[in-house]
């Protein structure tokens, strides 16, 4: 894979299930640097990394769950307030309509 003016090479390491909990070492010798220092890359235990990732994900999940519950509660609160306000407006309109009709009918009969 080329990135700007450099190239990257990827390799695949296949290991048995029994050696998943062991550390692996990759020794790299460049063709240009024969006889010079070699590069070593250590691969730590896959199981240890998975447990670290899982614990990190679970803590992020807890934070996400807390945030989601908080947003749900705020949404429910504002929805309740909106419905309450809507009902108060409807009540005022109906009350005005009923009082207006009775006042009009009452004025007509008393004359």
From TrEMBL:
The listed locations are: Membrane
**TM spans (from-to):** 88-106
**What is the species of this protein?**
Mustela putorius furo (European domestic ferret)
Coiled-coil annotated spans = none
What is the protein named?
A: Uncharacterized protein
GO CC list: membrane
Q: Where is the signal peptide?
A: none
Q: Does the keyword Protein biosynthesis apply?
A: no
InterPro entries listed in its UniProt record = Ig-like_fold, TRG_var/const_region
Keywords, alphabetical: Immunoglobulin domain, Membrane, Receptor, Transmembrane, Transmembrane helix
């Amino acid at each position: 894979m080329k990135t700007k003016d450099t190239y990257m090479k990827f390799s695949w390491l296949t290991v048995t299930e029994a050696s998943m909990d062991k550390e692996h070492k990759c020794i790299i010798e460049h063709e240009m640097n024969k006889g010079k220092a070699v590069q070593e890359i250590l691969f730590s235990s896959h199981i240890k990394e998975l447990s670290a990732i899982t614990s990190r994900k679970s803590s992020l999940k807890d934070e996400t769950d807390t945030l989601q519950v908080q947003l749900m509660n705020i949404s429910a609160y504002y929805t309740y307030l909106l419905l309450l306000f809507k009902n108060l407006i409807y009540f005022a309109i109906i009350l005005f309509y009923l009082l207006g009709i009775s006042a009009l009918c009452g004025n007509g009969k008393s004359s």
